[in-house]
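[job 0412] stage=fold_complex status=start
inputs:
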Amino acid sequence: MKDILKDNFVKAGKKNKLDESLLIEVYDYLIRTQYVLPGEREAIQGQLERLIKKHMVKK
Amino acid sequence: MKLEYLFLRNIGPFYGDHTIDLVSEKKSNGFAFFADNGRGKTTLYNAMKWCLFGTVKTRVRAVSGIKTTPRIRPIVGVESDEPLINNTAYYGDEATEMSVVLIASSEKGRIQVTREVSSRSKLPRNDDELDINTTVVFGDKSSTGEKAQELIETFFPNTLQQFFFIDGEALEEYTDMLENDNLEGLKEDVESVLRLPALFRGKSDLELIRMSTKAKLKTAKKGEKNASAAQSEAAKYQRKMNDARKKVIKIQNRITTTENSLKDVTNKMNQHSEIAAHVEKVKEVKLKLEAAKKSLIRSAGSRKMYSEEAWKILIWKRAEAKYKEYNGQIGASQNLDFEIKTCKINIKNYTSDLKRLDGICSKCGQTLPDIDAYIAELKNKVVDEKKKLTELNSGVQFDSDELTTRLGRLTSIKPQRGDIDRIKNANNFWSDDRSLVKNLEEKYDSLNAKVTKEATSKLGDLGVRKGNFDQTIRRLKIECKAAEEELSINENKFNDWERKAGYSSGISDEEWKLESIVNKLISTIDDTVISYRQDAREKVEEEASKVFMEVTNAPQAYDGISLDNNFRARIKLKSGKFVTAPSSGMKSMMTISIIDGLRRVSGLDAPIFFDTPGRSLDEDHKRAMLDYFWREHNQQFLIFAHSGEYKIDATLRDFGSRIVKAWELTWPGDHHNCIECKSEEVMHSKSEQIATCMSCNHKWDTSSAHTIITELEI
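[job 0412] stage=fold_complex status=done
writing structure:
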């Protein structure tokens, strides 16, 4: 079945003038780490920041 | 995700080890466990929950009309606490052990979850006395503790367990929630299954990144101000650095030029090397001559000084004999003087006595006897003394005073000891110096004659120039070192300021971009949540309606299910109106439909475990439900059914093709046929509670409450 959450996220991101590849990467990472509880997400925040910066360099 | 094996040890009525193998070649997805009360169907269901999440809650029961709040069941404890461990294992076994192993496979890989309990003491009173370990093996990696639990979450999310561990009781609760206004719990569950927490947590993560970025930017802005000042300072030191560098280069050029000039002068001097050697020699002889002349002056002075005493030595050669003579006479003269004086005194005394003699004693006044003889004696004495005096006077040449005077005069010209050596030495020194001076003068004149005045002058000029160049180079090198130090200081200061200026601006640029993207991502999440809630509701409504139309026994009357924005559900009639008083079966089907719709929209990939599925359903709905869920949905659907809910024979007959495997859970006493060989020839002894197979002689305890799992033939 189509992932409508992903579709909505990418659509909204594009409206905000974000690159599709970044949106997909961020979305997949957030879904993959969705069960890590708040307070234990320090490493996730670091990884998320690196992911965005990596994309900035690519562009 | 497919469950493959389940291994049980000492949990609930399952004493000892039991393995359930769910692997099959069949493509269908139905699995069924049939059992009477107490045989362990709910234990099986709970064993899997405990294995995955570590806790099992008690069922909600109505006591005196009031529902009890579910509580966590302990592993060990008294019977009223509903402990999970098998009773016989707890009281009877030497070591208290309980474990469940679950093996499943998915596209991500194979996962094996092991949760086991062991006791440090026999008959532990509570769970604090137990060691509980969880191990997850995923691929080649093995994890324990919290890491293991995190890994389980990625396959079987605890927060979503109500969407794959379904039981009739929870279904009733959901039905109540879907109908009523008390929607908080439902809304939370719906959002969980729709994966909205992934975005909420992501938003919090991004907000924290933004906060950190803002802080960095604030620092960077401050840095920009500092950078501006730093740039100005850097420019100042750059100018100073350039000046210092020019100065160093200028001095180095001058050193090079001077060194070249020095080289020229040295070369020229080398060309006049022969004359230069003579000139050097002349200089050397000249210096020696000057020194010798000085020495001659000194020795001449000494010679003159000592020569002034030389006459004494010459005179003394003649005077020395007289001196010795006088010196020898002075002793005899002094004795003679003494004797003459003594004679004169004696004559004077005798003469005086003669004049004064009158023949009467001056003391007693008596007439002295024999006076004439005495006078005659005195007169003789005077004659003798005068004779002696004449003789003494005849031997006198000089008297002692005269001799002393003469000796004194001779002593004044007497030379001191060593005077002669000193005079000789001074004369020798003078003589040597005079010879040396004479020789050097001759040598100097001879050398001087070989060196022309012009050449000497030229060489002299070159020497002066060489000396000047040497001095200039030394001075320039000192200046160069100072200039290089100044350059180094300015370079360091310039680099410091330039780094300060560059560092600040570099940071802010990257952080500005990061902040901008993070802001856009946060807006994206906000926009997504709003749009997705609507889209997801519509999609769940659509999917749930499809399910409902499949499982309802009156599809011609209904149009499907309607969900409002809070997921409050109603059954929609074809007429466009809503069912006002649905039956309990209809409501259960609606709830099942919505849960399945949510699962499908969320993409949750886990087997569905359904305990007592037919609890609130009539026969038609029970059949319709199995008919729908045991279709090929690419998802295992396991039911744990009471024998009264679903008759084994009828279920196997009606759904045999859809069922992969089925089991019956029994106690030994439930078996009328032989447990081993299925023979009907069994003898039961009610008094001994033993059954004996007449065919294979297998015996079993009919009073035992230890469940036997028997796979059914389909």
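[job 0412] summary: Residues 4-58 of chain A form one domain.
[job 0412] exit 0
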